[in-house]
Amino acid sequence: MQIDLRTVSIKPLRNTFDHLVRRFGDKPASRYQEGSYDIQADANLQYRPTWDPEHELHDPGRTAIVMADWYAFKDPRQYYYGAYTLARARQQESAESSFEFVESRGLLAQMDEATRALALAVLMPLRHAAWGANMNNTGMCADGYGTLITQPCMYHAMDNLGVAQYLTRLGLLLGDVTTLDAGREAWLNDVRWQPLRRLVEKTLVTQDWFELFVAQNFVLDGLLYPLIYEQFVDKHLNAHGGAGVSMLTAFMGEWHGETRRWIDSVIKIAAAESDANKALLTEWTRQWRGAAVEALSPIAQQALGDTAADVLATVDQSFNDRAAKLGLTL
Amino acid sequence: MDMQASKKKLGLKERYQVMTRGLDWTPSYQKMEDIYPYVAYEGIKIHDWDKWEDPFRLTMDAYWKYQAEKERKLYAIIDAYAQNNGHLGVTDARYINTVKLFISGISPLEYVAHRGFTHVGRQFPGAGPRVACLMQSLDEIRHAQTQVHSISNYNKYYNGVHDFHHAHDRIWFLSVPKSFFDDAITAGPFEFMVAIGFSFEYVLTNLLFVPFVSGAAYNGDMGTMTFGFSAQSDEARHMTLGLEVIKFILEQDPDNLPIVQRWIDKWTWRGYRVLTLVAMMMDYMLPKRTMSWKEAWEVYFEENGGALFKDLARYGITMPKCAEQIALEKDHLSHQAWSTFYNYGAATNFHTWMPDEDEMAWLTAKYPESFDKHYRPRYEYWREQAAKGNRFYNKTLPMLCQTCQIPLVFTEPGDPTKICYREVDFKDEKYHFCSDHCKAIFEHEPEKYVQAWMPVHQIYQGNCFPEGTDPTVEGFDPLAAVLKYYHLEHGRDNLDFEGSEDQKNFDEWRGMATKNV
Ligand SMILES: [Fe+2]
Ligand SMILES: [Fe+2]
After folding, report:
1. Which residue in the set A4, A14, A51 is minimally distant from B162, CB to CB?
2. CB pairs under 8 A, 24+ apart, for A284-290?
């Protein structure tokens, strides 16, 4: 016998899980809430890590930032795995059609040789910078406390890998595998790229994961993405017949705009928690910003020539405005 | 001349390499050991990370595309199942206790797996394995979340899992799976990969996920079945990663062999002890059985695992020694486990029951060597007593094994009439073990295992009562206080299935669909 269960109207015993009721009251919970809040163990951890016996497995003491509740960091995008992959799948679809469009219309042929060479000289070494960002965000997810902040770090890490891979495809489209090699060679040995590589390697040994968040996501990428993708690619290259390149890096611009909302919310929430946090975040931001501007200036010079200093100053200024809006006084 | 013409074309393998390990570089401003500080202390020797063979090739754009496609389908089914009251279509309401066991015992492990693969995905100096681990990290948070989302609807209508995260960190038997995964993630990065990537995901996965997923399918639970099937293509990737890890480590240096062999021995046993919960689920908790625990062990471990270890013999790896003891236990494991849970049914977040006549006959047929002789009489006696109103709930706390944290309820290998009991003195304390294997694991790393958070010890130390409890007051009921600490509602979440609210509601709700009210 086929039973039609749909016709049965029954009253649920409860709306959602108790830990969500304690946080949000007795009402149905969203998938973001069910998948994210309190899902990291926070009691009765069994053994200390043999790789870090100073700390517990999940330990808020791996950063100097102090929060009463680490689940304060609600992601404004409310990304859980499903929402995240759906969003990125849509973006990769449009990136895919950009690649097809550029290829089929021969858009890259409109660029003269000098512009093509410049685009590659600036963009190819950045594959490695994005890879460093991937390692750092992975580290933040590993060392961080509370799924609300560790989860988006993991998504961010995979996005960083995605960016490095889109740059790789761009390199293979504009050149070939020797183009990638040349970018690596510049990253390793060209004097103009050494300050940035030195800075990235310094982030790789930065112990405090929240400081790393500030250094990598807020400061370095907060300066690098506007400088490279807005100023260099979308404005400078575009004006020199490089519209094709601009289409191929559309993902980066859009992604930076989207992830900025999350990064800003993290800084804002942590800063608003206490004066001590605010002082720490200010200090970190100040230090890393100084180092990042210095590291980016030979690259800006290479990319933008005479206008480099002005453009970098503008980028720096709008970063400072952004920081001020989040509660930091630099 | 056309620029394209002179281009060097890349093969699939090279293309994936420039998309992943080609992004990496050897640092010169910082030392390798400062960037990758945890890779040396386990004694594993790796000479050339470039020898790593990528077990699968998935760039991020492809990953996003395929996974999003799967998510779309999965959530459409989860939604439909919830909207159509799919839970009323399961074989009988006892089945739902399987789901409770799964979400409180297994789903939190998916989350720890996510964090573990993140950790090693940062720590290996080789970019190839790092990327593979990151993909798995992402898959594992997917599993944790899709399971919660699928099972969320059950929580709305049935008891026992309303605070499953809280439960996972506290309830006595849940420390068995929890300590297993905490053990792995607190080990070094190579041991984690052998423990989880290989032993768990490759050797034992068919004994964990397959029984739950096919159990769901047999019992009409489309929701659970769907996330299981949806995870299958992820699992296929995880298995290839687990196997590649073993081969890679062993090919790098002959000195790695004894270390890896010891880890395989340890983690096969650790994993098997966790599977005790699955064994009892298969033999007792599924109203419609798929296969017996014993059959599953024979097919998935003795046959398939046997072939695997034969294949690994060329590296010098041998079948874990514990397999002999497991073979001796396969006639007894599930029965001893279910007896224990029936005893302690007042302190569990799922219901227990005695098998009915048909089920006893099934058990007799599946376990001709052991069931009628050792277990049937016990069950008949308990059933009789319950019928007379003497249902006995054990309130005495059992002694736990310091390694696997299971109460000492297992019998001596080869003698099902005698409880197996081992002990070790370490730094003026006595530690107890369920078996020679758990004892050996402790003896190799006593400093680690003395830290274990042992539920029974913690209760006796007064650490498992709600804050502000005064255990010295007249008439203090320790079990009631412990249940409060667990956030278990006495009489709703625990005790017998017979007479439970779950049973009553399910009958009533199903009745509304089949009768004219
Ligand atoms: Fe999983
Ligand atoms: Fe044990």
Report:
1. A14
2. A284/A211, A284/A214, A284/A215, A285/A214, A285/A218, A285/A219, A285/A323, A285/A328, A285/A330, A286/A330, A288/A214, A288/A215, A288/A219, A288/A220, A289/A219, A289/A223, A289/A316, A289/A319, A289/A320, A289/A330
Helix axes A275-304, A250-273, angle to 10 degrees: 160
Decide if B401 contacts B419 (C-beta within 8 A): no
Q: Which of B59, B145, B171, B465 to mutate to test the interface with A (most CBs of A within 10 A)?
A: B145
**Which positions in chain A touch B68 (Cβ < 8 Å)?**
85-86, 88-89
pLDDT (tens digit, 9 = 90+) per residue, B300-346?
A: 999 999 999 999 999 999 999 999 999 999 999 999 999 999 999 99
The bound ligand whose nearest atom lies closest to the alpha carbon of B179 is 2
- Chain A contacts of B74, Cβ < 8 Å? 82
Q: In chain A, what residues touch B160 (CB-CB under 8 Å)? A: none
Cα–Cα distance measured from residue A223 to residue A293, given in angstroms and rounded to the nearest whole number? 8
Q: Tell me what the mean pLDDT of segment A126-139 comes to.
A: 98
Q: What is the CA radius of gyration of chain B?
A: 25
- 3-state SS, one letter per residue, for B450-478: CCCCCHHHHHHCCCCCCCCCCCCCCCCCH
Query: Ligand 1 centre from B180 Cα, in Å?
Result: 15
Q: Report the C-alpha gap between A206 and A136 in whole angstroms.
A: 9
The pLDDT, as a whole number, for residue B2 is 44
Residue B227 has pLDDT above 70, yes or no: yes
Region B70-93: what's the mean pLDDT? Answer: 95
A89·B514 Cβ contact <8 A: no
pLDDT confidence of residue B1: 35
CATH of the domain at B190: 1.10.620.20
Residue B166 maps to a domain = yes
A96's CB contacts (< 8 A; 6+ apart) are B61
pTM of the complete model beyond 0.95 = yes
What are A155-201's pLDDT values in tens digits? 999 999 999 999 999 999 999 999 999 999 999 999 999 999 999 99
Give, for A136, the enclosing helix (H) or strand (E). helix A126-143
Distance CA A37, CA B154 (A): 19
Domains annotated on chain A, with CATH? 112-325 (1.10.620.20)
Whether residue B16 is contained in a domain is answered as no
Number of domains composing chain B? 1
Distance A317 CA to ligand 1 centre (A): 45
Q: Is there a domain that residue B389 lies in? A: no
Distance from CA of A182 to the nearest CA of B (A): 12
